[in-house]
Amino acid sequence: MKHPITEHIGREFISLSESLGGAALMFKSVVFWFFRSKFELKETIKQCVTIGVDSFTVTALTSFFTGMVLALQMGQSMKNLFNEPMFIGTMVAFSLLKELGPVLTSIVVAGRAGAVVTAEIGTMKVTEQIDALYTLGTNPTRYLLVPRYIAFLIMLPLLTVFADFIGVAGGCIVGMVKLGVPSAVYFDDIFTYLDTSDFLHGFIKTYFFAFMIATVSCYKGLNTKGGAEGVGKATTEAVVVSMVLVMVLDYFISALLVAVGL
Amino acid sequence: MIEIKNLNKAFGEKRILKDINVEIRDGELFSVIGPSGIGKSTFIKCLIRLLRPESGQILVDGVDIGSTSNEFTLAKVRRSFGYLFQEGALFDSLTVLENVAFGLRYLTDVPKSDYPRIVKEKLALVGLKDVEHLKPSELSVGMKKRVSLARSVAAEPKYMLYDEPTTGLDPVTTGMVKDLITDMRAKLKITSVVVTHDLSLALELSSRVAMLYGGEFVEVSEPAKFRQSENKGVREFMEISNLSRTGPDKDCK
Question: What does the pLDDT look like over A9-58, one tens digit per residue?
Fold first, then answer.
C-alpha cells in the first residue's frame, strides 16, 4: 500500500539516481570530446576569465579577513592560556592551507562562477541555443562543457594558492599590529612547523572540488526546464548542491589524504 | 531526399507523432500545418534528430538517423541542414558577424579571412547591412530572425528547416520573410520544410502541404488540392484561418 511519506522518499531517491546517472553520462561525453575535438582556446580563455579572474576579488577579500580573524582569535586564546600569542603563524597557515583556503575558495567559486555557468547554459537551453549548436555542426559538450571543465580545473587551484598567501598575509598584519608578533617570528613559525605535504593536502582537494562544481553547474544548466523561472531555479539548485557537496567531499577527501599520509 | 517511415514520438504517456510516413523530395518546399501544440515543431526536430523518435526511420539521402547513436553520423547528416528557429536562437554572447560565421567555422573549410565577406553577402541576402558588430540584444525580433536565417544558409545547406518563420512578426517583416523563403529556394535550390500554423503562408509558398492532426498527417497534397480536401480537420482549420476552398482571390483577409 502506498504511503505519502514512503512515496515521497521513493520519488526523491529515483530523482537522485537519475541525476547521478545523467551527470555520469555527461562526464563521459566531456571525456570523449576532450580527446576527440579541436581545442577551443578562445572559449577556454574566456571561461578562465569568468571563473577565475572575475572571482579573484571576492576570494581575496574572503581569505584576507579569514586570515585576520584566525590570527586575532588564536592570538587572544594563546594570550589567555600562556600569556603570550604563541604559534600564530603556524596555526593560521595550517588552518588556511589545509582547510579554509580550499573550502572557502570553492564555496566562493561555486556561488559566483558556478551560478554564472548554470545560468548561462540554462538560458541557452531554454532559448534553443543548445539545439542551434547541434544544427551548426557543433556538439554542445565540445563547445560549452569542455572549456568550462578545463577552466574550473585550472582556475580553482590557482585561486586557492592566491587565497592561501593572502590569508597568511592577513594573519601576519593582525599579528604585527594587534598582537605584537614580529613578521619574522610569524613566518619562522610557519616554515618550522609546516611542510610541503600540508600545502599539497589542501591543493589536491581543490581538483576534486573543481571537478564537482563544474559537473553540478553544467549538469543543472543543461537540464534546465521552463523559461526564466526555470533558469533561476536551476541556478539556485546548482549553488546549494555545490556548496553542500564541498563540505561533504571535504571530509571524505581529507580522510583519504590523511590515510595516504598527506 | 528525406524519407520518413513509421515515425513515432511520445513525451511520457502522450503520443505526439503516430506512424508518420512521408517523402520530402529534392527541391520542393514542403509545409506542415496544424494548430499550436499539435507536434509540428516535434516533427521538424525529429527530422534533424534534435529529438530522438521512439521508433521509425528518418532517411536523409539514404542514411538512417532515426535510431543511430553515432555522434559522427549525426553530425555528418546535420551538416546538410540549416535550421531557422522560432525565436532565432542567436548566441547572445557573440556578435552578428560571429553568429553568422559560426556555421562556416564548424561546417566548412572556408579560410577565416573570408568570413567577413561571406557574412556580408549572407546578411545582404536577408536585407541587412552594417549590423555585423551588433549583439543580438541590440536587434529587433524581425532582425534577429533574418540574422538567424543568414546564419542558417551561410554554410549553404542542402535542406532548410523553418520553425514557425513568421510567428511574432509584423505584416511587413512577415512579407519579407515569405520572400526570403521563396528566394532561398529559387536562388540556392534548397529543399525546404516549413512548419507553421499560418495556413495562408503554407498555401502560398509550398509545393505540397501536410496537415498534422491528432499525431498523423491527415492530408498531404498540393495547395490547390489541399483547399478541396474533404478531411474534417483540414476543413475546420481552413474555416478558422478564414480561407476559401476556391483560391487566394476569395480568401477573407
Answer: 888 889 888 888 998 999 998 998 888 878 889 999 999 999 999 999 99
Cα–Cα distance, A56 to A62 (Å, whole number)? 10
Closest by Cα among B207, B202, B204, B162 to B44: B162
Which of A136, A141, A222, A231 is best to mutate for the B interface (most B CBs within 10 A)?
A136
Q: Identify whether B185 is part of a domain.
A: no
Contacts of A138 in chain B (CB under 8 A): 102, 106
**Sign of the torsion angle spanned by Cα atoms B31, B33, B39, B41:** positive
B37 and B151 housed in the same domain: no
Average of per-residue pLDDT across B234-238? 84
**CATH number of the domain that residue B76 is part of:** 3.40.50.300
Exposed/middle/buried for residue A19 (C-beta within 10 Å: 0-12, 13-18, 19+): middle
Environment class of residue A191 by beta-carbon count within 10 Å: exposed (0-12), middle (13-18) or buried (19+)? exposed
Whether residue A123 lies within 8 A of chain B, CB to CB, comes out as yes
Q: How does strand B191-196 pair with strand B208-213?
A: unpaired
pLDDT for B247:
58
| Whole-number Å distance between alpha carbons of B239 and B63 | 40
Helix (H) / strand (E) containing B75: helix B71-78
Residue type, A64: F
CA gap B115, B37 in Å, rounded: 38
Is A123's CB within 8 Å of B92's CB?
Answer: yes
Best CA proximity match to B62, nearest among B54, B52, B73? B73
- Cα torsion angle, A35, A41, A43, A47, sign: positive
**B91 phi, psi to nearest 5 deg:** -80, 115
Residues B216 and B164 in one domain: yes
Residue of B76, B92, B144 for testing the chain A interface, max A β-carbons within 10 Å = B92
pLDDT of residue A227: 87
What whole-number distance in Å separates Cα of residue A113 and Cα of residue B16? 39
Residues in chain B: 253
Only one residue has cell 534577429, namely B144
pTM for the full model?
Answer: 0.87
The whole-number mean pLDDT for each consecutive block of 10 residues of chain A, a chain of 262 residues, reads 83 88 90 85 94 95 96 93 90 95 96 96 94 90 94 97 96 94 94 92 96 96 92 95 96 94 82
Torsion angle, alpha carbons of B188, B191, B197, B200, to 10: 60
Question: Using CA atoms, how far apart are residues A12 and A232, in angstroms rounded to an integer?
Answer: 21
The DSSP H or E segment spanning B120 is helix B115-125
Report the candidate in A148, A169, A180 with the shortest Cα–Cα distance to residue A101: A169
Domain residues for the domain of B215 are 1-80+157-180+191-253
Number of separate domains in chain B? 2
**Residues B167 and B223 grouped into a single domain:** yes
Among A120, A131, A137, whose Cβ lies nearest the Cβ of B106? A137
